[in-house]
Fold this sequence. Notes:
By secondary structure, the chain is mainly alpha-helical. It has 5 helices and no strands. The radius of gyration is 19 Å and the shape is flat.
Amino acid sequence: MSTPETSRFVRLRVELVLEVEDANAVTKRALQRLAGDTEMPEEERTHAEVAVTEDTAEALAYLVDPFDLVSEVPGVELQQASWSSERIEYDPDSPEWDLDEDDGADDEEEDGIG
Length: 114
């Protein structure tokens, strides 16, 4: 299926819902990671420390790195990544949280199917 018309770039979308059972542990680990980042400018570090201390979602966003997710995958190189986090209301029984809801005809068209 490798033709000159086939792009070698792939967009991988991942959505996670995490339950934070120990916000202090998350914050502590984010602060440790910040302390170990010797390349971060001091002004940026101060801003990041305040953000991760005030908001567990920010701490998680600092700890979860897309590069870490794909760095061990052979034959790929991360070209661009963006991610964010936010506090949400979550009800796993709600149809709103059906993770398969995006697997419709639109995705098939994007994949060249249908």
